[in-house]
Request: fold
Amino acid sequence: MSNMPTIKHVRAFTLRGGGADYHDQGGGHWIDDHIATPMSKYPAYRQSRQSFGINVLGTLVVEIEASDGTVGFSVTTGGELGCWIVEKHLARFIEGAKVTDIEKIWDQMYNATLYYGRKGIVINTISGVDLALWDLLAKVRKEPVHALLGGPVRDELTFYATGARPDLAKQMGFIGGKMPLHHGPAEREDGFKKNIDMLADMRSRVGDDFWLMLDCWMSLDVEYATRLAQAASEYKLKWIEEALPPDDYWGYAELRRNVPRGMLVSTGEHEATRWGFRLLLEMGCCDILQPDVGWCGGITELIKISNLADAHGKLVVPHGSSVYSYHFVITRHNSPFAEFLMMAPKADEVVPMFHPQLLDEPVPVNGRMKASALDAPGFGVRLNPECALHRPFPR
Ligand SMILES: C[C@H](O)[C@H](O)[C@@H](O)[C@@H](O)C(=O)O
Ligand SMILES: [Mg+2]
Reply:
């Protein structure tokens, strides 16, 4: 490995307006239309998730330049906080290391931030650095990232779509549609009825052979989620997603014991590291783990999470994170399909998930994506030069 380049610089930037912080959208977007959240108990914060700050972080862009001039980069959710962590703390473990030192850099970043990290923004930031390192190493080797992960186990990716219009998603060739839940316990029986009516209406539109899922975004309690699952079974709900707050491992285990036979329980997009997912697995919390590779620790950690889940016979269907999850999913037997977030405001057309930040970002065609669409070096995408990068903590 002596001929491998070393890392000269790491730089951290912020971007606003869609992209990796995909909740950072303009008005009138389905993704901010009265979606149930843990804040829905407060009427002032019920209509819009932006009202309580779902988009306060913005996008973190991590750029890593090697001694041979190759540059790897990534985008994730992290904004200025992430920039501070990269420039003021993590840079010391990255600059001067070899481009192949990915495991060692991850271990040093994690252990050095253990006293204030472990989850949330710190692991988002470590994830961003890790993704940029995998992009860099793959570009140095002139291979796609999936080739460094063992290569594709199938010829194409198959997608379900997340958005307000599963009926349109079916017409576009997706295998299923995941809708946001709109009403939480604070809206009582009226809200509960609206939730079920929405599912019933969509089932009538898509027919019986199309997957329908509900994404509850941490908004419920065990009692409400159990009743919702039981009422939803009449409409063949495929899985109930993230019904409870991430720390309620005990609640998830109870919910999974309560849901109707055949209905799946999923969670994990706001969980982090192998230790968090070990808890979900060993406490019997869910059937499908949904780590976000930009939030759980990056590719380096997702490999560990996925292998642990595989040993437990559980599926890993990463939370939608564009090419960063596609390159992983195509290499894993226990990741048989992928998520595609419909980022068009009315969920009525396929647009690149991290638009406008990435150029050459592949999108599903007829709900599928050929492995060959992922064959460019690295993650195969470029930063859009029209997006104004801001470096808040230059060194
Ligand atoms: C649609 C959900 O409310 C979230 O916005 C979504 O990003 C996430 O939970 C998902 O599973 O895609
Ligand atoms: Mg979700």
The mean pLDDT is 98. The two ends are 29 Å apart (CA to CA).
